[in-house]
Amino acid sequence: MATRHQARMAVVSLLYAFDLGNGNIAEHTDEILEEKKIRNKQKDFALTLYEGVMANITPVDEAIVKHLKDWDFERLGAIERATLRLATYEILFGELDSAVVINEAVEITKAFGTEQSPKFINGVLDAISKDK
User: Fold this and answer.
1) Cα(117)–Cα(100) distance, rounded to whole angstroms?
2) What is the span of the domain harbouring residue 36?
3) Total domains present in the chain
4) What is the rounded distance in angstroms from the CA atom of residue 90 to the CA atom of residue 69?
5) Residue 82: CATH number of its domain
6) Which family is this protein grouped under?
7) Are 116 and 77 in contact (CB under 8 A)?
8) Distance between CA 66 and CA 127 in Å, rounded?
9) b/e per residue, 37-55, with b = 16+ CB within 10 A?
10) In 3D, which of 41, 45, 49 has the Cα closest to residue 91?
């Protein structure tokens, strides 16, 4: 059985694919989640997160851009952008404590991002959580 952490990692993968230009990724979410063994409640959780990010992508991206220090949104790595989008959505619209969301994002970034990514992600998300 998949965990919420694994479900979030799958959502980051979906957002990553979307960001790389796969605009029809939404048509394949069920297949992708099944392939990653994200099922039942965790599948519902993952779909809720993915659909929530996509439905709120403009305010999510605006919050990220507002808190980037000396960075251009388009220059962010696709993994970092996907992770920031998911975590920002959860901070702004979710029910979890921001510290938990930030920790999850940092852990996901450790798995997918560069060596410097976790610190960067932590800083941006901390600023977003303080400003919400």
Assistant:
1) 18
2) 4-131
3) 1
4) 21
5) 1.10.940.10
6) Belongs to the NusB family.
7) no
8) 9
9) ebeeebbebbbebbebbbe
10) 49
Tell me the helices (H) and strands (E) count for the chain, helix number first.
Answer: 7, 0
Q: Tokens in use for 10? A: 């799958």
This prediction has a pTM of 0.95
Do residues 105 and 83 make contact, with C-beta atoms less than 8 angstroms apart?
yes
* Rounded-to-integer distance, Cα 123 and Cα 128, Å: 9
Q: How many CB atoms lie within 10 A of CB 59?
A: 13
CB 58: neighbour CB atoms within 10 A? Answer: 8
90 neighbors 96 (Cβ within 8 angstroms) = yes
C-alpha to C-alpha distance for 89 and 128, rounded to whole angstroms = 10
- Tokens 């997918």 sit on residue: 112
pLDDT tens per residue across span 31-46: 989 999 999 999 999 9
From CA 23, how far away is CA 105, in angstroms rounded? 23
Q: How many whole angstroms separate alpha carbon 97 and alpha carbon 104? A: 11
> With 90 as the cut, is the pLDDT of residue 113 above it?
no
